[in-house]
Amino acid sequence: MGEPYAAQTTAKDSALHELFNQWPSVEWLPPFESAESYFRNKAKLMVGGTVQQPTLGILGPDFTGVDLTGCPLYEPAVSESFPVLTAFIRRAQLTPFHVPSGRGELKNILVTAAPTGLLMIRFVLRSTEPIVRIRKHLPWLCDQLPNLEVVTANLLPERKAVPEGKEEIVLGSANTLPFNLGDITLFLQPRSFFQTNTAVARGLYETAREWTDDLAPHTVWDMFCGVGGFALYCARPGRRITGVEISGAAVHSAKVAAANAGLSDDVDFREDDASRAPTASAPDLVIVNPPRRGIGQLAHWLNESNAGAVLYSSCNPDSLVKDLRTMPAFAPIRARVFDMFPHTDHVETLVLLTRV
Predict the structure, then answer these.
(1) pTM for the full predicted model
(2) 328-333: long-range contacts at Cβ-Cβ below 8 A with a sequence spacing of 24 or more?
(3) What is the predicted pLDDT for the residue at 210?
């Protein structure tokens, strides 16, 4: 942080070019830049301090709370919720969790904002003990935040350095956050993954749609499809798309989004492990958007398949290049850096590969 933004994007772009030096014929489009501030649609706030003087941010080396509510990373709808949440902690008597002693209840607060300004707020708790008080004061919270759509309690009883646990208790009437991205509205459940930079995510989906339309495939697979962003953006009449995702909740959300967009006849979503080698014949195009570890054994399967092209969206350049080297039957022909995470060394990259 503090480095001029133009220098940041130039450095990221140059680093990707260097990693791709064994493929010198790749056409590199200019980096897709982010806003320099107020771009992050999600806050993961560790709660410190006391009931009367809580902090929302991170914990210092001595586990003292460091308040980051003035940080300019967050979208206005997110940051405007912070003083209300601080007041809510006092009102509902939510004791911040104290890491050294293991006492207290409120560990983290996770806030997500949709492009419309609607909010999802999740209270990460050590136990169910505070839920009665959260429910009691929830009408006050809704009055203070009229854009509040989803409220949940997430249970994290273990002492782990993770932002959330596996059990979610919905405290209001809604359990999904409508996330409008222009042509498509996605539906995020509390534990759904979505990119934290809405504007850049939309640019990523739009670029994927343009490159897919250039290929004009009749059949497409969207592997690691999540809540369906790539599949729904790339849908066209006469084009059959199948999305594969291991999370049943994400598959349900993707099906709701397809129905909402009138695309249920064109796009199908299935619950399965996308990293495993499929048993069906390959489609014309395979879209992959894997976690940081990459696509695993799917790379070997793709290399031996009859798929005509691969569209690879990656958040980890190292695993991306490793996977590409596992697929010598394909050559990258077009690539673009998307600066999803300004002021960090992380980067999203979209690469189009065609069969050699």
Answers:
(1) 0.94
(2) 328/303, 328/356, 329/303, 329/304, 329/355, 329/356, 330/302, 330/303, 330/354, 330/355, 330/356, 331/23, 331/25, 331/356, 332/20, 332/23, 332/26, 333/25, 333/26, 333/27
(3) 98
